[in-house]
Amino acid sequence: MQLRNLRIYRMPDGREYIADLLHRDGAHLHPVKTWGNYSFAEFLVGRDGRIVRGSNPTPWSVEQLKDTGRDAQYPRASLL
Fold first, then answer.
1. pLDDT tens-place string over residues 13-47
2. Distances (CA, A) of 13 to 37, 38, 76, 78
3. Which of 1, 2, 20, 51 has the smallest number of Cβ neighbours within 10 A?
């Protein structure tokens, strides 16, 4: 399965994440709820398709992500 940049995917547990593909180490998955706050990625999808959290593998792989058909946008920069 090929992930699409800024596409929203649903994990097997029902939570939704935005795929950010602009990284050398693989796709980063950011929680939809915190995306606008420039949050850190909660998961990484490795080149082998396995989904890891930190250095801990999860039981999931990229094939288990469900495409929601929705896209996100990069958060806008804000001036403080």
1. 999 999 999 887 789 999 999 998 877 899 999 88
2. 23, 23, 29, 33
3. 2
